[in-house]
Design goal:
By secondary structure, this protein is an alpha/beta fold. About 35% of the residues lie in helices and about 15% in strands. α2 runs parallel beside α3. The chain is globular, with a radius of gyration of 21 Å.
């Protein structure tokens, strides 16, 4: 009998959450497991395994870095949107009849979506043959430093979830660096390794290393960095080299047009590049924020890099990651609160003058996540129980 997994993924600014989930879904589908991926963010064209069933909910995004929830027209979401999304999600669950439900982020994040996630979790527990319920989180969770909130999260994990897949490497950055209550759910935690993008051909860096590549992920929160990069370039920073700014698909069109109009000669401004990894391998310096996927691209390329972590509205995820990398000598760090043309130019010149320290980080997270999920839903497989139990406690027995 074919096994089935349903994913719920919601992204608000960038698309990193969706990219991680799709890579796991692709690995599961390649193993012959039926996958339904329910997406609640704005539609975006990304490659996926041909057998993955993609269900688009009424899109909800963040208006800005303040994370006010709006629909595709920029209108605050109302009960009609909530009801529509909840019904579609439960219908997808009923049709998929999954052996496992994977929820990206919750209960560590996405609490504003409890209107649909609580009913999904309730349906999971009420099913005649209860599916495994799995939380999928990146290496760092962004939460307020609130002991009560931490206790609530621990209680929810212990009550409802069979496992928490942490898509990181504990030897590099353990979950308790951002979630101090992690020891209370240690028997649920399984570190999968980082979910890295597939390797891209070409672009090996050598004596012909050339461009300064400035990127801001999806672009919704990157306008200030792009403007500052242009100012640094106009000040003369590596002005003898070409610069390429990747503004992202979500930067407003007016801001994109203004950047292009303001760009000096020798600067190319584009929305995105499908060969981003190859660009990094061939660049002189990479300048970017410190999102999960971007950092993995930089480390895979062994690029000389400057990180300017997004830190608005008490966001700490990117800052924690960037500080750790800077402490290990892998990148130059400019905090968002200290960002100026002068500080950015100085960091770019420091990065250009030296090779980054090599790091050994587990990046086999997509394949390992798929193997863990498959083991959880195939308890009859003599190899499955030992595999998962050896990773974290006695999950198979629950």
């Amino acid at each position: 009998m074919t096994r089935s997994v349903l994913f719920h993924v919601q992204y608000l600014l960038g698309i990193g959450h969706l990219q991680r989930s799709l890579r796991i879904a692709d690995a599961l589908a390649g193993d012959g497991i039926a996958v339904t991926l329910v997406c609640g963010g704005a539609p975006v064209a990304l490659p996926m395994h041909k057998s993955v069933r993609f269900v688009q909910l009424t899109p909800v995004r963040s208006r800005d870095a303040g994370f006010a929830l709006v629909d595709s027209a920029g209108t605050p979401i109302d009960d009609g949107v909530r009801d529509e999304r909840r019904a579609a999600l439960l219908a997808a669950f009923a049709e998929a009849r999954p052996d496992a439900v994977v929820i990206e982020g919750f209960p560590f994040a996405r609490r504003a979506f409890r209107f649909e996630l609580d009913p999904l979790i309730a349906a999971t527990h009420a099913a005649p043959k209860r599916p495994r319920l799995i939380c999928s989180v990146r290496d760092i969770v962004a939460m307020r430093d609130d002991p009560q909130r931490h206790r609530e999260t621990v209680e929810r994990v212990r009550r409802d979830f069979d496992a928490v897949l942490v898509h990181g490497d504990a030897a590099f950055l353990a979950l308790d660096a951002s979630f101090p209550a992690a020891p209370a759910i240690a028997d649920r935690l399984i570190y999968t390794g980082y979910i890295a993008p597939p390797a891209e051909p070409g672009g090996a860096r050598g004596s012909d290393a050339d461009e300064v590549v400035v990127s801001v992920g999806g672009g919704a929160a990157g306008h200030a960095l792009l403007r500052t990069a242009l100012a640094a370039r106009r000040s003369g920073c590596l002005a003898e080299r070409p610069w390429r700014l990747l503004a992202g698909a979500n930067l407003p069109e007016a801001d994109f047009a203004a950047l292009r109009a303001d760009a000096p000669e020798g600067v190319v401004i584009e929305r995105f590049r499908h060969d981003f990894g190859a660009l990094l391998r061939g660049c002189r310096v990479s300048v970017s924020q410190a999102g999960y996927n971007t950092v993995l691209d930089i480390l895979a390329a062994r690029a000389r890099a400057v990180l300017v972590p997004f830190a608005a509205q008490r966001e700490t995820e990117q800052l924690v990651r960037a500080e750790r990398l800077a402490a290990l000598g892998a990148v130059e760090l400019v905090r968002e609160s200290e960002l100026s043309a002068e500080t950015l130019a100085a960091a770019i010149l420091r990065a250009a003058r030296r090779e980054p320290s090599p790091l050994a980080i587990d990046t086999d997270g997509a394949a390992r996540s798929a193997r863990i999920i498959a083991a959880l839903i195939r308890p009859g497989d003599p190899d499955s129980g030992g595999f998962v139990a050896g990773l974290s406690g006695s999950i198979i027995g629950r």
